[in-house]
Amino acid sequence: MINVGLLGCGNVGHILARHAENFRIVAVFDIIPDRAQELAALSHAEPYADFDEFLRQDTDIIVEAASVAAVRRYGEAILGAGKDLVVLSGGALADDEFRTRLIEAARSAGRKIRVPSGAVTGLDNLKIGQISPLQTLLLRTTKSPGSLGISTPARMEIFKGMAHECIKQYPKNINVAVALGLAAGREADVELYVDPDVERNVHEIFAEGEFGDIYIRVRNVPSPENPATSYMAALSILTLLKNLDNPLVVGT
Ligand SMILES: NC(=O)C1=CN([C@@H]2O[C@H](COP(=O)(O)OP(=O)(O)OC[C@H]3O[C@@H](n4cnc5c(N)ncnc54)[C@H](OP(=O)(O)O)[C@@H]3O)[C@@H](O)[C@H]2O)C=CC1
Ligand SMILES: O=C([O-])CC(=O)C(=O)O
Q1: 96 lies in which domain range?
Q2: Domain co-membership, 66 together with 158
Q3: Which CATH number belongs to the domain containing residue 223 in this structure?
Q4: Domain total in the chain
Q5: What superkingdom does the record give (predicted)?
Q6: 247 inside domain
Q7: What is the predicted pLDDT for the residue at 246?
Q8: Are 44 and 148 in the same domain?
């Protein structure tokens, strides 16, 4: 059984706790200690208000489901402590200098940084872009205005540009764009829309290269406690944890 340390006790943290079947959450940490206490009670884990103490616990892997800021603040320490790290807030890796440092910390410690597919599909074979560069990589995301704290009567484009700029402006909403780029070996262009007529978080991926072209549309059900976060993101981490020890690896 894999011992997991959970960094971030919000919406995704709760879904993981409710479905912890082939792993055990042993330690939890959140910037808000009451949230850690509450989730610890639900998952039979120990809550920690002190991050260093959290890190000293007997965990194999730390799952980050907190924020871009949390990855930046704690990522290197987690790897340095000899733990693997699952990064859901992959937007933190848009910063070249930080990403290089984090990868170096993982290499030195002989550990892995795992970026789950999160709220999209297709990361597996978009990796062919690392071999045969993609000419086009575009993510068009549409969410409800309320999930971004915006009010508008009609569909509205709120961002158009590169992923590393978009994640600076919307760090809780477009981590998927950075993950796409990391998989494909080139940064994604992003168009971000809010639309009062959508009830789902819609991610459309357009890619083109020597291989041909791809169009993927993911129409995600928002998760119950945070409509900006798709339920699929939590399922993606559960799947990653389920397969960690599986000798059979399917998908590129
Ligand atoms: N890659 C992907 O596909 C996806 C990524 N995400 C990302 O995953 C993360 C988790 O999502 P979700 O569970 O819905 O978010 P929530 O806001 O529901 O939960 C996050 C929890 O982590 C806490 N937290 C934030 N920063 C820190 C920190 N520095 N140290 C400790 N705790 C911290 C939050 O506290 P507080 O509320 O005070 O900030 C909150 O309690 C978000 O960053 C989100 O953007 C989400 C969906 C898809
Ligand atoms: O959950 C989603 O649909 C995407 C998301 O919030 C993110 O990538 O940060």
Answers
A1: 2-115
A2: no
A3: 3.30.360.10
A4: 2
A5: Archaea
A6: no
A7: 95
A8: no
Query: SS3 of 120, please?
Result: coil
Mean pLDDT by 10 residues, the chain (252 residues): 97 97 96 97 96 98 98 98 98 98 98 98 97 98 95 97 98 98 98 97 98 98 94 98 96 94
Query: Does 81 map to a domain?
Result: yes
Residues in binding site: 119, 175
Whether residues 14 and 107 share a domain: the answer is: yes
Q: Which conformational region is residue 198 in: left (phi greater than 0), alpha (psi within -120 to 50 degrees), or beta?
A: beta
Residues 31 and 71 in one domain: yes
For residue 35, what are its two tokens? 């949230």
In this prediction, residue 159 carries a pLDDT of: 98
Where a domain ends, among 115, 139, 160? 115
Q: Which long-range contacts (CB under 8 A, 24 or more apart) does 203-206 make?
A: 203/119, 203/120, 203/139, 203/140, 203/141, 203/176, 204/139, 204/140, 204/141, 204/142, 205/120, 205/122, 205/126, 205/137, 205/138, 205/139, 205/180, 206/136, 206/137, 206/138, 206/140
Are residue 76 and residue 171 in the same domain, yes or no? no
- Pocket probe mutation, ligand 1, options 38, 42, 67, max atoms within 8 Å of Cβ: 67
38 and 95 together in one domain: yes
Q: Rounded distance, CA 37 to CA 9, Å?
A: 9
| 163 CB within 6 A, ligand 2 | no
The ipTM value here is: 0.98
- What's the full length of the chain, in residues? 252
Distance 232 CA to ligand 1 centre (A): 15
pLDDT for the residue numbered 101? 98
Identify whether the C-beta of residue 233 lies closer than 8 Å to the C-beta of residue 119: yes
Per-residue pLDDT, 224 = 84
